[in-house]
């Protein structure tokens, strides 16, 4: 058990030969004050965390999602909605299946900061969708970012461009349930296998994020930056190994670990290099590593 800071200092000092309790206590007080000054300085220097709200999230008929943009997206570009590949209205894509530029008229309920539905957005197409290596869907909308902001006063969430870091405080914001889950990134999984599908470098949450059905597709938001670092997609429900709704972790040596009750997400930064001019998905763009259609 770790001792409280003052207690640890006092115990150490009292063990020293010839040191009186009064002198030890005074020394402890000085060191405690110094420690507090260091902590206060660190707190003052740290960037203020942005409050995570529902603004920019959407509710699908069966899942959650969010209006997202890359750092290079223009206000006049058609907006994108991010969700999971397994949330597509066309059904689960099979292993190796990639959908690009498929017509869609799907609708999404746009939420404000408090989780109130403020309007309906409509897709023009499934810009990209797959459950291979990752589990994501990007819809292109009939509205631009500028039009959405003008009509509803809501800005898109920005996609993170770098690999997230373990220990990062995150919030999973579900537009379907109008509910948030707060925890940390616990680590990353070499391969996450669920039924017929395998995902690479998945995000594992600490146990506090006990996401449920309907939270699929929710943006995973970095509490400090407000950026989308991942998209929530699955969890091990009852301890089974590598079955549907019970993903297992597979390490570099093929070792399998089952973590009952633990939930996972797929990273967002991997899609940013694939978003080109006009928000068009370009799988041949430099740095894009998303799976391509086989034919």
Task: Give your account of this protein's structure.
This is Serine protease. It holds the Pfam family Trypsin_2. GO terms for molecular function: peptidase activity. The chain has 295 residues and is of the alpha+beta class. Helices cover 15% and strands 35% of the residues. It has helices at residues 5-14, 21-45, 145-152, and strands spanning 57-59, 64-69, 78-83, 98-103, 107-111, 117-130, 136-144, 157-158, 169-174, 179-194, 197-205, 219-222, 228-235, 248-250, 256-257, 263-267. The strands form 2 sheets. A 6-stranded antiparallel β-barrel has the order 1-2-3-7-6-5. A 6-stranded antiparallel β-barrel has the order 9-10-11-16-13-12. α1 packs antiparallel against α2. The longest helix is centred in the N-terminal third of the chain and has 25 residues, at 21-45. 40% of the residues are buried. Mean pLDDT is 87; it is low at 1-36 and 38-47.
Summary of the model, kept short:
The protein is α+β, with helices and mostly antiparallel strands and 295 residues long. It is built from three helices and 16 strands.
């Amino acid at each position: 058990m770790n001792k409280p800071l003052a207690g640890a200092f006092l115990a150490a000092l009292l063990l020293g030969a010839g040191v009186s309790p009064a002198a030890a206590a005074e020394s402890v007080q000085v060191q405690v004050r110094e420690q507090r000054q260091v902590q206060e300085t660190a707190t003052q220097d740290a960037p203020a965390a942005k409050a995570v709200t529902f603004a920019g999230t959407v509710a699908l008929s069966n899942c959650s999602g969010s209006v997202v943009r890359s750092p290079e997206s223009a206000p006049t570009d058609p907006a994108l909605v991010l969700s999971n590949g397994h949330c597509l209205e066309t059904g689960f894509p099979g292993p190796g299946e990639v959908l690009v530029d498929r017509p869609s008229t799907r609708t999404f309920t746009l939420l404000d900061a408090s989780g109130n539905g403020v309007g309906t957005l409509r897709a023009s197409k499934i810009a990209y969708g797959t459950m291979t290596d990752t589990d994501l869907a990007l819809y292109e909308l009939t509205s631009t970012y500028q039009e959405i902001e003008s009509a509803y006063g809501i800005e898109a969430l920005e996609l993170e461009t770098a690999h997230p870091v373990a220990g990062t405080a995150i919030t999973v914001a579900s537009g379907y349930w109008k509910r948030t889950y707060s925890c940390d990134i616990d680590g990353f999984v070499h391969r996450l296998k669920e039924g017929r599908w395998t995902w690479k470098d998945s995000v594992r949450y600490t146990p506090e994020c006990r996401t449920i059905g309907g939270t699929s597709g929710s943006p995973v938001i970095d509490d400090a930056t407000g950026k989308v670092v991942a998209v929530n997609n699955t969890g091990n429900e009852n301890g089974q190994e590598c079955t549907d709704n019970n993903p297992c972790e597979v390490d570099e040596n093929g070792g399998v670990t089952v973590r009952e009750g633990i939930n996972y997400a797929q990273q967002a930064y991997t899609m940013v290099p694939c978003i080109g001019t006009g928000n068009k998905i370009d799988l041949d763009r430099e740095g894009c590593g998303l799976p391509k259609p086989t034919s």
